[in-house]
């Protein structure tokens, strides 16, 4: 059974989209899963995870403002991190997600850290996908540069070629995998060309250095201290570097770690090892 598509009204009236996957009615009630994507990604990145986990428990995937099927804002400041975190909190309240296992890729992992501070009782466990309390400066610059661009590509195959040429190593993807990733990254517009599934104005507001001082992310990470935690790390990631991973393990000795050799930022979570590790981790939470 597929998901229920949900449209929510944000505090300012902006339409936000989520997909609500429900397990069979005869399944025992278990802690649901909330999936939060990277800053230029959307809920479709978790389709495989949702299909698997919804056999046993509820799964909700969410499109931030300006992403996926959610509406785009006229004012770029609507994409400030604090506004998007508020949207997540409001969405959780509207969908009665009072406590969940959060799977957060990149920016979604940072949001999960913020939730641990703002509403700690809402978290039953966290999967961080290639993100930590320190972000490599080289990787940060790459995110800014690549994700500001609208390729206006003629075909989805062109989009796949663009991703292969510019994204970090994702060795598990074959030709079909790259084409699938392209389809979740770009969509055909009214002009017949393919454009990003995110508002390119998001980037400077959400991760640009010009929006103000960066908070102490180690303090946010510390708020995860009492929670079950799994870190999925692309070993050649330019955003999450080895010294940061080592310090994270010291700060949270109970943290599970899955290292994906030869993989950059961010793992797609379709890697066989990632599927196995995430499913096993979630299974430990009733």
Automatic annotation (TrEMBL):
Gene3D superfamilies: alpha/beta hydrolase. One of its GO terms (molecular function) is hydrolase activity. Keywords: Hydrolase. InterPro entries: AB_hydrolase_1 (IPR000073), AB_hydrolase_fold (IPR029058), AB_hydrolase_sf (IPR050266). Residues 33-277 form the AB hydrolase-1 domain. Transmembrane segments: none annotated. It comes from the Bacteria. Pfam families: Abhydrolase_6. This is Alpha/beta hydrolase.
């Amino acid at each position: 059974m597929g998901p229920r598509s949900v449209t929510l009204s944000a505090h300012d009236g902006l339409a936000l989209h989520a997909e609500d996957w429900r397990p069979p009615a005869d399944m025992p009630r278990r802690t649901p899963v909330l999936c939060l994507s990277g800053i230029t990604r959307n809920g479709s990145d978790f389709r495989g995870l949702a299909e698997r986990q919804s056999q046993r428990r509820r799964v909700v995937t969410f499109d931030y403002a300006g992403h996926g099927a959610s509406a785009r804002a006229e004012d770029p400041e609507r994409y400030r991190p604090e506004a998007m975190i508020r949207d997540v909190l409001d969405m959780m309240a509207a969908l009665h997600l009072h406590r969940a296992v959060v799977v957060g890729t990149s920016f979604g992992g940072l949001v999960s850290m913020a939730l641990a501070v703002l509403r700690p009782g809402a978290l039953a466990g966290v999967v961080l996908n290639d993100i930590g309390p320190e972000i490599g400066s080289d990787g940060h610059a790459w995110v800014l540069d690549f994700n500001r661009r609208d390729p206006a590509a003629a075909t989805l195959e062109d989009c796949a070629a663009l991703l292969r040429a510019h994204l970090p190593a994702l060795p598990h993807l074959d030709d079909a995998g790259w084409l699938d990733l392209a389809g979740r990254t770009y969509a055909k517009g009214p002009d017949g060309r393919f454009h990003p599934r995110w508002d390119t104005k998001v980037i400077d507001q959400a991760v640009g250095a010009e929006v103000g001082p960066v908070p102490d992310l180690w303090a946010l990470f510390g708020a995860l201290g009492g929670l079950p935690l799994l870190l999925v790390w692309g070993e050649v990631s330019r955003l999450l570097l080895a010294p940061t991973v080592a310090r994270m393990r010291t700060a949270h000795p109970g943290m599970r770690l899955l290292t994906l050799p030869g993989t950059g930022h961010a793992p797609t979570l379709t890697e066989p090892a990632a599927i196995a590790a995430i499913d096993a981790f979630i299974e430990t939470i009733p």
